[in-house]
Amino acid sequence: MRQMKSDPSPDAIFGHGFADLIDSFDWDSIVAKVYDATTHQVDEVLDKAKTSSSLLSPEDLGILISPAATSRLEDLAALAKSITDMRFGKTISLYIPMYVGNACTNKCVYCGFNHDNDFSRKILSFDEIREECEAIKDLGSFQNLLLVAGEYPSLCGIDYMEKVLEICRPYFHNLTLEVQPMKAIHYKRLAENGLNGVVCFQETYHKQAYPRYHPRGMKSHFDWRLNGFDRMGEAGLHKIGMGALLGLEDWHGEAVMMGHHLRYLQKKYWRSRFSINFPRLRPSESGFKPNFIVSDADIVQLCCAFRIFDNDIDISFSTRENSYFRNAIIGLGATSMSAGSRTEPGGYSHPDNALEQFEISDNRSPQEVAMAIQEKGYDAVWKDWDMIFD
User: Which one, of 123, 127, 154, lies nearest residue 355 by Cα?
Assistant: First the structure.
């Protein structure tokens, strides 16, 4: 198999990609521009979004998430709803995560899977994965499965994940991974064996702050993680999911940098679809407290702004958020949600809260989530993609 540009090489130990450009962005300047935005600028961007066929810029996104834009939140919400309903119809796609392992070699200071945390570690056997598939099918008509694992390549590497995909494929039509970043050649291999997409959180785009949160392990290498999205794109994955962990650094800066990163990826890997997530720091085994508080109103503004910024991107909300918030965000830009989630390995067939990565905030059953979606006038969609459509 040919060498891929985004993979490691003698001249670039972490490959090539967006990390080659990251130093051209000044974090402090980006954040300052957001806080300096005026309501007049907000109105100009909203008018541009309504009347122009041109894409909004990341700078426009920064204006829409600015403090000045809070006085126009109703206008943002109305436009976001109109765009979402027009592009996606009145639908919310449902998915469910399966945690296949919580062993991790990283020492992320905020994560319950931190290598130094003293709790039981587990990697599901292939028989246990079949049990989980059966248990999930008993919960609801899910066809969208997100496979999640801590970063432990020797235990949850390419060979293991390839077998996991083989086991899960007969049960689910759409398989997505959220595991350690891989080489492009490995993503391509998994795509040839049924993988549809990959979700990866950069955690923070603040390059100087990144090492404080990721002191040890492969995840400590900022460029390797950031270039992972290029490796996904070069491998030809159908869907690439991205996001930052909100609460580490100023969320305004994270959002604008996500905008820059998204536009870069869309231009370079135009055959792929993209999704974005806005996870907020939640209580975990680590006991880490957020450095920046991100309110419900902030997330609503961010969601609406991103929908206006990019009309076609999938915006997802997991059970990290509570039921009240998730009900409220329906119709304001969200297009997919998890339901019935367990965040511990084997949690559907053999629940054990001691193994959780973070606390679940929405404990409703899949049927209750689907009913809440319907009560908002939307359809809950259990299957929205099949390989035959690609």
Answer: 123
Q: What is the pLDDT of residue 389?
A: 46
For residue 45, give the amino acid letter.
Answer: V
Please list the residues that pair with 99 across neighbouring strands. Answer: 148
The SS3 call for residue 230 is: helix
- For residue 247 the two structure tokens come to 């609460």
Report in angstroms the alpha-carbon separations of 114 from 103, 106, 152, 242, 353.
Answer: 9, 6, 11, 21, 16
Give 179-182 contacts, CB < 8 A, sequence gap 24+.
Answer: 179/147, 179/148, 179/149, 179/151, 180/149, 180/151, 180/152, 180/153, 180/156, 180/218, 180/219, 181/218, 181/224, 181/225, 181/228, 181/231, 182/158, 182/228, 182/231
The tokens describing 8, both together, are 């490691």
Tokens 């390797």 belong to 224
Residue 337 to residue 368: CA distance in whole angstroms: 13
**DSSP code per residue over 294-362:** --HHHHHHHHHHHHHH-SS-EEEE-TTS-HHHHHHHTTTT--EEE-S---STTTTTS--GGG-SS--S-
Count helices and strands in the chain by DSSP H and E runs: 15, 9
The strand pairing partners of 336, in sequence order, are: 93, 316
CA angle 112, 118, 121 (to 5 degrees): 75
Task: Kindly give, in sequence order, each residue whose CB lies less than 8 Å from that of residue 166, ignoring residues fewer than 6 positions away.
Answer: 193, 194
Q: Count the residues in the chain.
A: 390
**Cα-Cα-Cα-Cα dihedral sign, residues 158, 159, 161, 166:** positive
Q: Identify the helix (H) or strand (E) that includes residue 90.
A: none
What is the C-alpha to C-alpha distance for residues 113 and 286, in angstroms, rounded to an integer? 8
Mean pLDDT, range 285-290, rounded to an integer: 74
Q: Which of 171, 91, 102 is nearest to 342 (CA)?
A: 102
Burial 290-312 (b: 16+ CB within 10 A, else e): eebebeeebbbbbbbbbbbbbee
Q: Is the pLDDT of residue 51 over 60?
A: yes
pTM given for the model: 0.94
Tokens of 360: 């679940």
Report the relative pairing of strands 273-277 and 239-243 from DSSP bridges. parallel
